């Protein structure tokens, strides 16, 4: 099937924004600009934006173990509604994805999703940070990267061995920069807010210490490494320096770019994240770091949680928020706020994660996969969490005024939303 | 008279005029409590449930007496032995209790914000009797009443709060209240027991008692909260007592008529010298306990008035 978009503002993360047309044939983008080929179905984009589909790196899906929170089907629908065309799923499931057999199971189950899903596998057995997983077999079974997610190993020797072994196979490791001894039990970031509300808190330095240790290990082992979330200004100088010599990239969650610690307000547990929300100064520093390319990737860190696990006193409540469907409108706040252009934003949302993970997606050029999102960046709406496609409704944006509506999502040339 | 609050969850929600209203009414209840016949009927027919998820003898007894003196039917739920232990969530407990139609719910809980959460799920008036490290509003109000009666005013005083500030909900409520009433506040503690972000509180900070107490009108000691500590904050109790325990020598740096306060229960010989605590010329610790009952009576009286008014409006609305 051939589709021809006319009158579209193309968002090319490698170029810029320009009003043009785009043709897809089968699963591939075949032309940019030019007239419609004979027999093509015409779509008038009405001047709205056409961009590569988002590659969302670090999505938790509840299979296996917590399907009531999110299934591959519901996650796929949420992603499609949010312009996400590739989900990079996390292995912090129950049990963890730490064997080729479990990985094959989730790969099979993922066929229920309308968007592409690639899986990360655990770096160590049970994500316990002690013994490395069968990294070779897992790579053969399709693991795209290796991570213990939010669990930080204190067994430095075991971690160094896993990194060395992964290096020999060219495997990418995703780490969570945090000094667990400092952050244990914390529900907020050190500061006036945490102290007035009486919440156990962690110093921003815990992230910097974790980052410094991991950078040392990367230098020692030569591992390919991606920091899942950099969220405090104190981490940036070391990260910027390291990127010049080491094979290192970094990401940040959309929540740390759009919310700060005071948004928690009256103990609203939907705002409880890992790591906890930071100060406004840190938030602004992260936005600048994304604009300057020090931070490469913006992701939702979609973490479905049921109502029961959130309707608890703040300290005891589960951490994390859903984000597949709100990533795009939330990220557009950075554009509307004048911090970056649409094509700059799309580098962090699609091009950089795809490149780092070795995927052909995330680009808007001839020959690239036809994974596209058409959206109106200015359409205003008030978010109602009960209208989200996710099985879990734990979004911090409930009732928020947002701008940016997805008009259509295509995966491999097929319309999925 | 101003008092608009529906619940008493913290001092943070109260305006200075509301604080004054509570204290004025509490003054009158002090007089009532000093009579032989101490009963009033302003809460007659109302049900008060005391729900203490953390053990407390003093505060629970104070709330119970306050309710009984005002004529309420008071029930103490011993939560330690209840279904909470069987895995029932806080919200389910709240909903169950709510269905029994209490009018006043007095709650203490070990987690900051737990009382706010509970208050959002029930129809009655909720009084926070202490939540985690967050707030303990009736303690701050009774401290304010004690200060006002001893000093004749609650403004322009130099007040030093000393000790385990990091773990203390009493300190938080007090510094919010005393700050609202425009006093000069000093916090004195070893740096490990200062909460993070304390420099933004608008208080003067000291790690030395002699300097911090200089010229203070009120010296508020805090209990060393051993149960909330998750690791060595101080090297030893004896070193803590030596450097931060209040004794006659350290107190000599304060104003000559400075009063000494402590929210209790005291660790004698840890944060305060036993003899000093009993010195009736300096210590107002026993008065604090007395004021506690009166302040709690005032708070429950005011919340009950608002509750009646709200229900009256609802009934009128239903008729119309």
From TrEMBL, chain A:
Coiled coil: none annotated. GO terms for molecular function: allantoinase activity; dihydroorotase activity; metal ion binding. Residues 48-231 form the Dihydroorotase catalytic domain. Keywords: Pyrimidine biosynthesis, Zinc. CDD domains: DHOase_IIa. The keyword Electron transport does not apply. It comes from the Bacteria. Residues 339-417 form the Amidohydrolase domain. The keyword Zinc applies. GO terms for cellular component: cytoplasm. One of its GO terms (biological process) is pyrimidine nucleotide biosynthetic process. NCBIfam families: pyrC_multi (TIGR00857). This is Amidohydrolase family protein. It comes from Stagnihabitans tardus.
From TrEMBL, chain B:
GO terms for biological process: 'de novo' pyrimidine nucleobase biosynthetic process; 'de novo' UMP biosynthetic process; amino acid metabolic process. GO terms for cellular component: cytosol. It catalyses: carbamoyl phosphate + L-aspartate = N-carbamoyl-L-aspartate + phosphate + H(+). Residues 157-302 form the Aspartate/ornithine carbamoyltransferase Asp/Orn-binding domain. It is an enzyme of class 2 (transferase). L-aspartate binds at residues 86, 169, 223. Keywords: Pyrimidine biosynthesis, Transferase. Pathway: Pyrimidine metabolism; UMP biosynthesis via de novo pathway; (S)-dihydroorotate from bicarbonate: step 2/3. It holds the Pfam family OTCace. GO terms for molecular function: amino acid binding; aspartate carbamoyltransferase activity. It comes from the Bacteria. Residues 6-148 form the Aspartate/ornithine carbamoyltransferase carbamoyl-P binding domain. SUPFAM superfamilies: Aspartate/ornithine carbamoyltransferase. Carbamoyl phosphate binds at residues 58-59, 108, 136, 139, 264-265. Its EC number is 2.1.3.2. InterPro entries: Asp/Orn_carbamoyltranf_P-bd (IPR006132), Asp/Orn_carbamoylTrfase (IPR006130), Asp/Orn_carbamoylTrfase_sf (IPR036901), Asp_carbamoyltransf (IPR002082), Asp_carbamoyltransf_Asp/Orn-bd (IPR006131). Heterododecamer (2C3:3R2) of six catalytic PyrB chains organized as two trimers (C3), and six regulatory PyrI chains organized as three dimers (R2). Catalyzes the condensation of carbamoyl phosphate and aspartate to form carbamoyl aspartate and inorganic phosphate, the committed step in the de novo pyrimidine nucleotide biosynthesis pathway. PANTHER family: ASPARTATE CARBAMOYLTRANSFERASE (PTHR45753:SF6), ORNITHINE CARBAMOYLTRANSFERASE, MITOCHONDRIAL (PTHR45753). Belongs to the aspartate/ornithine carbamoyltransferase superfamily. ATCase family. This is Aspartate carbamoyltransferase. The lineage of its organism: Bacteria, Pseudomonadati, Pseudomonadota, Alphaproteobacteria, Rhodobacterales. The gene is pyrB.
